[in-house]
Amino acid sequence: MVLLHGETVFPGTPAALLRGAEYFIYVYHARRSVVRDPGLSMARPNTHRPNGSPAINSSTGSASQYQTPRDLLTQAAKNVSSFHFKRALRLYKSALSQLDHLQPSEENRRLIIEALQSSAFLLLDEGKLKEAKENFQKAVQLSPDEGYEKYMYLAQISGGSEAVDLYRRGIEIIKRSLDASMNHQCHCEKMTDDVDSSTKNKLKRALSNAYCAISELYTTDLCDEPEAESSCREAVQKATEADESNPQAWFSAANMLTIKAQNDEARRALEKCFSLYWPQVEQVVSLLRSRENGNGDVAGHDEEVEELDLEEISGMPYEAHIQMVKMMIELDMFERAAEILEVMLEEDDEHAEVLYLLTVVGKKLWINSDPDHLRYYAEVTRELCANNGDVETVGEMEELLATLPQNDSGREGEGDGDPEISSSGEDEEEEEEEVMDTL
């Protein structure tokens, strides 16, 4: 499913809390996906408190009866930022309990909605879907016409036609927000150009991702519905129209086209998806490798880059890239698949599935031209799977290694297996037009 990059209605909602909930939703739907999960546009969560993070004084919870609801929400946000999620959940519940006994007011209504949504995110992180859904539904009852995010989360923990209806309700709010943003820009053209542009781009990405989610439902939960194909195609077209720069939209297009066996169009959609963010990946990898080689910072990079994060760059999580590679293998795009997989090892060099897929690709690309390259990945995969108790894959790697010629090169070390990254050089505008014609 998807995560939408819009601004939260309630600024007090901690970002760390949002990230944790979003990741849970991805994992939950990845398990139940029937065809292939077109991935999520979300930031990877950090749901564990790092060593050395300061703890919040435990007295905050016991003193809750002496604090206002706003104080409790502030303390809860601090606990979330310090990864004390259970304590934060208690504080949100205390705030809701107090608010239940106060006179109704607009301020109290907004505090209740904030507490409901924030606690729902924490409940998602704990796997308590029923309680989380109840809190989101209460928030919808209190504020049905503003804040699209709660509809998206409800859709993601629902399914079938119910989920589609929830996405569509959220989409209507996004569209109204976009219209309001455009009208505001007309009245305040110069002073708020930057702010309005940022808001509009976030809303466009949210709208595009919502349509991606609907398209996925019509390839999974609703795939047997009579209107599944036409509804999926319509959702994909609207996703690309809403935000042509969204990699997720073109990935969803490729997914649909692959299912329909429109392989040439699917390849072009994947190339379009790839082209939207891969040049930035190349830059980051080049910078990191330069530092590893002791060459210092690369000229032209003002931002400090500590590590490669495909999700941060593309808006699509690591797991979605695995699905992309599988699609590329199905479409005989082996060179591109190898390029992505070898860069994925820059982020996680002990990911068993990535290493295994490199042996699958390697049997197509390197078994004759560079058997040592294939041998390296087969040996690493065998060792890692042996440590994980995956006897079947170990046996498969043993069989593969037995077919390779004797290693005479003395090749050692992972560095020998690192690829040289190069740009695709495809004509992006032509590819986009060709794919759009098929949608």
What does this structure look like?
This protein has 439 residues and is mostly helical. It has 2 domains: 15-45 and 61-243, Serine Threonine Protein Phosphatase 5, Tetratricopeptide repeat, CATH 1.25.40.10; 282-438, Serine Threonine Protein Phosphatase 5, Tetratricopeptide repeat (Alpha Horseshoe), CATH 1.25.40. It has 20 helices and no strands. The protein has helices spanning 15-32, 59-62, 69-81, 85-100, 106-125, 129-142, 149-156, 160-187, 193-217, 228-242, 247-259, 263-275, 278-292, 310-314, 318-330, 334-347, 352-365, 371-387, 391-403, 428-438. Helix 5 (106-125) packs antiparallel against helix 6 (129-142) and helix 11 (247-259) packs antiparallel against helix 12 (263-275). The longest helix is centred in the middle third of the chain and has 28 residues, at 160-187.
